[in-house]
Amino acid sequence: MFSLPFVLSRHQLARIVPMALAALCGGCYEYGPMPQARGNGRQTVELLLNERGRADFVDRIGPDALSLEGVLVERRDSTVAIDITSVRYINQSVTRWTGERLVVVNGQLRDIRNKRLSVSKTGFAIGSAIGGLVAFIVTRSLLGGGDSPPAGGGLPGEQ
Description:
Elements: H1 10-26, E1 29-33, E2 44-49, H2 51-56, H3 58-61, E3 65-75, E4 79-89, E5 94-96, E6 101-105, E7 109-117, H4 119-139
């Protein structure tokens, strides 16, 4: 195993690296149009509620819900069933959920979007991470080649 020439210990790295990876991966997804085909699947979707949907679900998910994110359980001609993982509200706050199932009628929806990996966002995140690492290494002279010892050897003033 190699040793790190700077101040971070292995224990600190073990805590920092997973958080950094989670932050990078979290921004690498985007929502796009959901294909009209019926079906079931284990894909993550976002259901954008219309005014009727917000009013109909006040007692279940609270007032001013804007969208629901969750795992698609079933999609039929007139309904969509999901296991909710989060609810986004009009003020942009997000509440995490633990997979409660909700069946939504198409008349309560403004749109259904499919969550998928974004190649451009992922590339940007990886490039930024590599750039940050290179800047960190360069600014701390971790590759060696630091200052030369003073001419004449010994300590300054001993000549």
